[in-house]
Amino acid sequence: MKKKLKTKEMPDNKNNMDDLDYLASLGFEQVPVSNDDLNELTKKVKSRTFSYNNSIYFGFISLIIGIFIGVSVFFMIDNTPVLYSSNFSNKILNDTLPVAKNIPEKVIVIDTVNVIKESFIKSKPEIDHVTDNNGNTYYSANDSVVMIPSKSIDASVILDKRMSESKIKYIINAPVVYIHDLKVTNYSLLYFKKNQYVKLPLKGALSVAYANKEDLAKNNRIRVKQGADYYLHEEFADALLSFKKSDYAQSIYALTVISSYNDNDINCNFYLGMSYYYKKNYTKANELLEKCIADQNNVFLQEAMFYNVVSLYENGQKEKAIEKFKVIVDEGEFYSEKAKTFLLK
After folding, report:
1. Residue whose C-alpha is closest to residue 275's, from 245, 298, 297
2. Residue range 116-143: average pLDDT?
């Protein structure tokens, strides 16, 4: 038989107890429960649930995260792209190459030239010379830097058809290089000595690009280093740059200083002549351009001939210039069309 729950009358004075508190206390009285029962219930709850505050849980999660990061870093490093290098072995290429032979090492002695002070060209170069009984002076060809080896050329050997003499004379007979896009001939022969730099022993170590130290400081805003070295090929390049920039007064000054080391420097003669031409000093231009025309080096021959005639024309010698323009037109070379414009005036 089911036990009948004893009823308990609700007291009149509730003493701060509501209906829910009353029912809870009534159920507790009807069901016999001890502290042991509560402890047992707590154990059963813990056995069915997992506590996130457990240290084992945090250790396990940390281990998983560490493994994941380690694997990620490994693959990132392993898959980093590597640029090709000739030091890496190439199996396909190596299989196609012939077997390398062991070649005994040989010692090759190379002649070297020491750059010493005595090798530099002095401000007043000394050239061996002799004087005959008539007072004529002959200079040694060995010390001349403008001697160009020449030999006769049989045009029939190198040409398939006959060519006029006027065209043969323009075949370039000397090496040519370009500095600042300007043509230069015999560069190493004129501006180096035995494949060495040529120092300019200028007083106060002032570059030929400047007339005085004040001019240098004004243009470059730098101090002049006492005892600085300037070299012939560097100053020549600076002079050409001044010419290209149409700074003809500066190029005249620089090229005049450079040409003092060699009176027959065809490069200096030509660009000096052209500088005077653009400065409208046609008399001086003619003098220098005629030196280029007479020089056995014909690199500047066409240019020198044309501007020499133009200088004559502009200097008032028009009849003489017209006759020379006709010769240039008849030859049919590069400046023939420009020469025609003067004939049509």
Report:
1. 245
2. 44
Report the residue count for the chain: 345
Residue 235 contacts residue 202 (beta carbons within 8 Å): no
Alpha-carbon distance 254 to 10, whole Å?
Answer: 128
Number of domains in the chain: 1
Q: Is residue 216 part of a domain?
A: yes
| E strand or H helix at 325 | helix 318-331
SS3 (DSSP) at 146: coil
DSSP letter at 101 equals P
Cα–Cα dist 208/235, whole Å? 7
Closest CA to 196 of 260, 116, 82, 109: 116
Question: What pLDDT does residue 275 have?
Answer: 94
Is 83 within the bounds of a domain?
no
Query: Cα–Cα distance between 31 and 3 in angstroms, integer?
Result: 12
3-class secondary structure per residue, 246-275: CCHHHHHHHHHHHHCCCCCCHHHHHHHHHH
Q: Cα–Cα distances in Å, from 95 out to 86, 87, 337?
A: 16, 16, 63
Q: Which residue has the higher pLDDT, 144 or 127?
A: 127
C-alpha 239/C-alpha 273 separation (Å) is: 13
- Is there a domain that residue 246 lies in? yes
CA 323 vs CA 277, 303, 309, 339: distances in Å:
20, 17, 9, 11
Pull the structure tokens for residue 183.
């043509």
**Rounded CA separation 192/174 (Å):** 16
Q: What pLDDT is recorded for position 139?
A: 44
The answer to whether position 17 is within a domain reads no
Calpha distance 41→47 (Å, rounded):
10
The CATH number of whichever domain residue 317 belongs to comes to 1.25.40.10
Residues 286/301, Cβ–Cβ less than 8 Å: no
Judged against a pLDDT cut of 90, whether residue 105 lies above it is answered with no
The sign of the torsion formed by the CA atoms of 308, 314, 317, 322 equals positive
Q: What is the pLDDT of residues 162-177, one digit of tens each?
A: 666 667 777 888 889 9
Residue 307 · residue 293 · CB < 8 Å = no
Say what the pLDDT of residue 174 is.
Answer: 86
Secondary structure of residue 229 in the 3-state scheme: coil
